[in-house]
Amino acid sequence: MNAGVLYGKEDIRYEEIETPKPKKGEVLVKVKYSGICGSDVPRVNGDGAHFYPIILGHEFSGIVVETGEGVTKVKEGQRVAGAPLVPCMKCDDCKKGNYALCKNYSFIGTRQAGSFAEYICLPEQNVVPFKDTVSFEQGALFEPAAVALHGLECLTYEGGKTVAILGGGTIGLLVMQWANIFGAAKTVVFDIDDSRIELAKRMGASDGVNTLKEGFMEKAMELTQGKGYDYIYETAGSTMTMKMAYQLAANKAGICYIGKPTRELTFSVKEWENMNRKEFTMTGSWLSYSAPFPGHEWECVAHYFSTGQLKGEEALIFKKLPLSQIADGFEMFKTRGAVKGKILIDSEK
Who contacts 248 (Cβ-Cβ below 8 Å, separation ≥6)? Predict the structure, then answer.
């Protein structure tokens, strides 16, 4: 088969390698599409890979073409997505259903062969079937959609309240959709790009705020009659938005940090006092799993894509590239602002 194999920094090669064979309890999937995740970029354009050579890719869809001994969950010909975490299932965290906290895990596309290839082998438990009415492009968005839902539920989310989403990227727009699906009274997306804000509105956001424009905080607060937001989901991982969450929070609000920060962060006494005075709850979110593995997050993604309530195929996908041009996809990320959505790698071209 052909694959995009990473050999070192800025050295990802399209080459022919041996096609894997499914072992007992494993499934062989012919990959249709794989999304380039933001976490893949520093592994290719930097020194973030755990080892070399490695096939990256963990957001993918495809068709089951072969099953190993003992597999009963899926059969050949089924459309599936893949949940990339491979927990040990033996440690205390796994036994409690906290699979994302497993210390003895593997991960498809970072610690074992991933989906930037024509075929991939994965454990039966990691295969997520979906209906024929769900496109393979949508299937490649299952993982970020599950991450977004997991983040939403890290707070005790209730409908009928105001929601601020900080960051209008893929995860932010998916969080916004989940908030609407589960009954938000108002969803407001914050970003520095007007085109992302307009996209958010087309996808269902009540309003949007450009945080580079003068007076943006006043506008943001006016949208809640000065009360602030009941829920704030930070998805950008920037210092600006991480601090902004404190200002936007209403009394007794909930703040969830989904985005990954890239630099050291400190809060002033005044900023920290916001938490004391408002008595808001603050938490983080990591990955997309719950019990039974891989979790209801993945089941909900399959369901709501099939009903059409969760959208993503056209609006979130920026570009499709053949597997042979995978290096070009990572090259685009070197130009700030050049990538305005998800890049999908087509493994059949």
Answer: 164, 166, 220, 221, 228, 229, 232
